[in-house]
Amino acid sequence: MQKIRMTTPLVEMDGDEMTRILWQMIKDELLLPFVDLKTIYFDLGLPERERTKDKVTVDSANAAKEYGVAVKCATITPNKQRVEEYNLSEMWKSPNGTIRAILDGTVFRKPILIDAVKPVVRNWKKPITIARHAYGDVYKATEYRVEGEGKAELVFTGKDGTTFRETIYDFECGGVLQGQYNKDSSIESFAHACFQYAIAEKQDLWFATKDTISKKYDQTFKLVFQDIYEKNYKAQFEALGIEYFYTLIDDAVARVIRSEGGFIWACKNYDGDVMSDMVSTAFGSLAMMTSVLVSPDGKYEYEAAHGTVTRHYYRYLKGEETSTNPMATIYAWSGALRRRGEMDGLTDLVAFADALEAACIETLNAGIMTKDLVGLVEPGFEVQAVNSVDFIKAIRSRLEAKLA
Ligand code: NAP
Ligand code: MG
Q1: C-beta of 77 in contact with ligand 1 (< 6 A)
Q2: Is beta strand 289-294 parallel, antiparallel or unpaired with respect to 300-304?
Q3: Backbone angles phi, psi at 32, to 5 degrees
Q4: Within this chain, do residues 18 and 52 fall inside the same structural domain, yes or no?
Q5: Residue 19 Cβ contacting ligand 1 at under 6 Å
Q6: What is the CATH number of the domain that holds 258?
Q7: Which of 107, 111, 159, 320 has its CA 20 to 30 A from that of 150?
Q8: Is 11 helix (H, G, I), strand (E, B) or coil?
Q9: What is the mean pLDDT of residues 105-117?
Q10: Residue 336: which domain range?
């Protein structure tokens, strides 16, 4: 069989522990036999980050910026225990944080749905993608514990010396105080990433805040989105027959629960933190959650939402077989290959990505699955729990049949 051709390389970011093992298995079994895989390889595994003083992470992010599409394996974010375990000279920052800062991107999370596992919300038929604005608000707030009587004020001093001053509250007793901020530039980047992604996915975009109560802060988010939509994206949305709409967060929550899914829900930082956990739990499993970082100028970095699955890795090191679910990591590859194919006009590559995902879904619908999913299946559905190797082999045989 002739291998499927690529023209522009993907930026490949390898990672750590169990997902690093899966990464190689996926390449060997599901990609290299079929695709003339072109990648620019960066090893973001912790030993290499230590060796390069984390330069490799920065280099990989810059390459993603240059080439436009990257695929990333889960990586360890070091904590004190990891510093000892890997004998690190420094507690290197989260690679995802570094990459997100360089690409100025927004993270979109989308579940993979299968017949055997039904969302808790019965009417959800299609995935709901959550876009979280990962900058500012309560995550960068200044807080103060008020211990007794006194006056709290909001003061802003402009560079030209002009000041704004308003009383927040005249405390007659103890209490709490918090100062939050966000920046137009960050909200604008968030909005561009959301509109770009909605166009790429050909899906409606919903955005919601509490602007009825927060008449300047949340109102700014609403106005920035509206302005960017009208100036840059309205015509494209109309041509694609997709919709952008803004609504109050309370209304959005009610509509999301009653919907059948199949749209992108853009959320402010805190809402996105909370709602993404709610939506992903209702859909089933973290191992079935995909994630893509999209920059405001349309660069994409695909990955799984879960981590390096450390507990399974330690078992693997002891020679035990593990039943780690590779679905989200496979979808990171298929997502990246599809996007590359679309950008380069390679219909065979797009078709390969579709076939790979279809082979995964067929395998799961045949009841062949990793242990994490077995406990979630609907009653009456016959399943066979397999290890990661056998699961990937079962996908491969279906993929071969499709491509024959
Ligand atoms: P995790 O790797 O997501 O795993 C937590 C648990 O969830 C696992 O022990 C496993 O449960 C289950 N799980 C997750 N993914 C699975 C899969 N694909 N198949 C089967 N089960 C799966 O989170 P963690 O243990 O908190 O973090 C481990 C490391 O990952 C940390 O060093 C952290 O820094 C890193 N991390 C990286 C990223 C990223 O790169 N994007 C994200 C999150 C965490 P059972 O053990 O019960 O089977
Ligand atoms: Mg959370």
Answers
A1: yes
A2: antiparallel
A3: -60, -35
A4: yes
A5: no
A6: 3.40.718.10
A7: 159
A8: strand
A9: 90
A10: 1-114+296-404
Q: Are 44 and 12 in contact (CB under 8 A)?
A: no
Nearest ligand to residue 275 Cα: 2
What is the SS3 assignment for 68?
Answer: coil
DSSP, collapsed to helix, strand or coil, labels residue 88 as coil
Provide the number of structural domains found in the chain: 3
Q: Which two tokens stand for residue 315?
A: 């078992």
H helices within 248-346, ranges in order? Answer: 249-258, 269-283, 310-317, 327-344
Decide if 289 is inside a domain: no
Pair of tokens at residue 310: 């450390």
Contact between 244 and 93 under an 8 Å Cβ cutoff? The reply is no
For the chain, how long is the longest CA-to-CA vector? 80
Q: Are residues 225 and 353 in the same domain?
A: no
Q: Read off the pTM.
A: 0.91
Report which of 145, 143, 148 is spatially closest to residue 174, judged by C-alpha positions. Answer: 148
369: Cβ below 6 Å to ligand 1? no
Question: Percent of the chain, pLDDT > 90?
Answer: 87
Give 310 Cα–ligand 1 centroid separation in angstroms: 6
pLDDT one-digit tens code per residue, 319-335: 999 999 999 999 999 99
Contact 11, 42 (CB under 8 A): yes
Which residue, by CA, sits nearest to atom 23 of ligand 1?
Answer: 307
Q: Are residues 197 and 278 in the same domain?
A: yes
Closest CA to 61 of 72, 74, 47, 75: 72
CA of 18 to the centre of ligand 1 (A): 9
**Helical segments of 110-170, H only:** none
- The verdict on the CB of residue 286 being under 6 Å from ligand 1 is yes
Pocket flag, ligand 1, residue 310 (CB < 6 Å):
yes
Q: Is the pLDDT of residue 280 over 90?
A: no
Q: How far is the CA of 270 from the centre of ligand 2 (A)?
A: 9
Token reading at 358: 């279809």
- Cα separation, 167 vs 357, in Å, equals 57
